[in-house]
């Protein structure tokens, strides 16, 4: 018969959510390597997103390390970790706190990544749709300009990264999703910081990528859903997400 200690070891869930201090302290080489890869990308001197740079340079970030996108195990862990991230970001009243979720998927193309991204978001929504209402500050129809993804009753803006992105700023050796609370953008607007930051990022993006990302639109002035994967799509694009 197994001892209580053995049972507890098997029943203990694998740690997937890490603060900057936990990353420094961990002896898990996978966590160290993945976080270092991401930080090195953002910390590169010419990287255009100054908001992401602020998050990294002030330790206002969280890392999540998961298996394959859209699976039950990944969705359960990611959902739990996103709720921690929401609580910690609101508690800190942070303008820049990001959660970077890194997955083990091997991505074949931009289209492949887009499908896996929406499969993961659909699984997150399905996991709580009977218990949690959509954030009332944003719309739930991805074909409308007021849409933002909602989880845990909280709206998010999501940035996808993967090896095959046509945008250099979205190109990363692993498949990843960066989650930011939608309320952070509103806080920046309230402080009259948003427009200046947006212009700085766009100027830097021209230098870094050769042009401004044609898919990026301000909330309410264009579709947000296509921006998540970063793939350039036309007017006939249909979001696979279903309520």
Structural account:
This protein has 243 residues and is of the alpha+beta class. The protein has one domain (15-227). Helix content is 42%, strand content 13%. It contains eight helices and six strands; from the N terminus they run αβαααβαβαβββαα. It has helices at 4-11, 20-25, 29-43, 50-57, 72-92, 110-128, 182-190, 194-209, and strands at residues 17-18, 61-65, 98-103, 149-151, 154-161, 175-181. It has a six-stranded mixed β-sheet, sandwiched between helices. Helix 5 (72-92) crosses helix 6 (110-128). The longest helix is centred in the middle third of the chain and has 21 residues, at 72-92. The model is unreliable at 5-11 (pLDDT under 50).
Q: List low-pLDDT spans.
A: 5-11
SSE series = HEHHHEHEHEEEHH
Number of domains: 1
SS elements, strand count: 6
**Silhouette:** globular
> What is the average per-residue confidence, as pLDDT, rounded to a whole number?
90
The description of the largest β-sheet is: 6 strands, mixed
Q: First CA to last CA: what distance?
A: 47 Å
Strand content: 5-15%
- Gyration radius, to the nearest Å? 18 Å
Q: Into which percent range does the helicity of residues fall?
A: 40-55%
Specify the number of helices: 8
Main sheet: which strands, in order across?
Answer: 1-2-3-6-5-4
Q: Report the structural category.
A: alpha+beta
**Oligomer, anyone?**
single chain
